[in-house]
Amino acid sequence: MTVIDRISAPACACDGADLQTRLMPVNAALEAGMALAHPVAETETISLDTAVGRTLSAPVTAQADMPRFDNSGMDGYALRHADAQQAGAGTIPVSGTSAAGSPPRPLPSGTAMRIYTGAPLPQGADTVVMQEHVIRDRGQIRVERLPEPGANIRRQGEDQRKTDRVLEPGTRLTPRGIAACAAAGAGRVEVRRRLRIALLLTGDELCPPGARLREGTVWDVNASMLSACLQADGAELIALRHVADSRAALASALMNLAQQADLVVTSGGVSVGDRDHVKPALRDTGAEIRVSGVAIKPGKPVTISRLGDALILSLPGNPVSAFVTWRVLGRPLAVRMAGGVTAGPERRHVRTGQALHHRPGRCEFRPAILRGYDHAGREVATCAGGTRSAHAVPLATADGLLLIPGDSETVPEGDLLEFLPF
Ligand code: AMP
Ligand code: MG
Question: Is the pTM of the predicted complex or chain greater than 0.85?
């Protein structure tokens, strides 16, 4: 069963609470969101120095053959293989030096040339002998071990030919991608403009972190956490707004932000309590609600809608719920909207280091720590108890999220589970 199938497995064994609201399987919610997530159209050409985290909108092609010229892969001696064979145990005179950065020179017949790594191969040479396999005596060498003809030479164009495509559109530029661009001679790259994201926080109890807490207030975790998530993912945070728990204030802020942002992420107030005004406000604005309630734990009330040209992702207020739903749903949507290629959150299989108990219904994402490897070399992860959706601190020390499928009741120790690395 593929990874994506496990996430997509319908929450068939919904418990009573979940049956009251029809919850969408995680993968169906992701697909529905993806259908609304249109990539930003505008592109710009920018310097490679500022391009990390950006998404290519055009292929990067090699500006020259790579390597540009035949050169040595070793410090040693360049020679003609036939000359070395002929010399056998005898000596060969050294006729000069080829160093990196100098133009290639002809190799006089019957001689060897001192050569350094990356230096151009002298014209006429066909082999480089490592210096460790040579005995040098003043101006002569004796080859102790002659390699195959052609050894230790990096041939012109063996990595890439001029105009070869090095990276494809949709690639998000990592430091490795930046290296590939530089190696291809691309000093400027064409990328999509950055995704513009607005954050809208609601909750009358929220107080900025560090401020003195009045009775009944809590420090606002999500503003800092989500703006950090967005910035780490390469988006541009164009607005961060706090709004009271008021349907009218939320509707007005939603309308306003949807005109400026590609993606509006809301936090809090999306559940079904009397003080949860996000869904009624979305309806007031005329937003098209495509996902409303997902079979995910934590984060069940998460909602995805469209208002005008903007996608609206409404996350629950509990910090762990907000984080998990951002990682599982929000981030893949943002990658798609930034022009990237994604099949959902990155994940791999690990073994559980303990038996896990779970109430069947929703698939559950638990913060987990990688403990090491089992005898077969598989990674082993353990969880610190169940997910407490209000506790942000265990997230900080976890390595990722362990996914317990919706239909499991008990997962025995040693079973393979999907793991979403942080
Ligand atoms: P809500 O999703 O608005 O029903 O909030 C659920 C729980 O999360 C409540 O205990 C809120 O106080 C808490 N909460 C909501 N927003 C935040 C936030 N930005 N930071 C920390 N806790 C929050
Ligand atoms: Mg609230």
Answer: yes
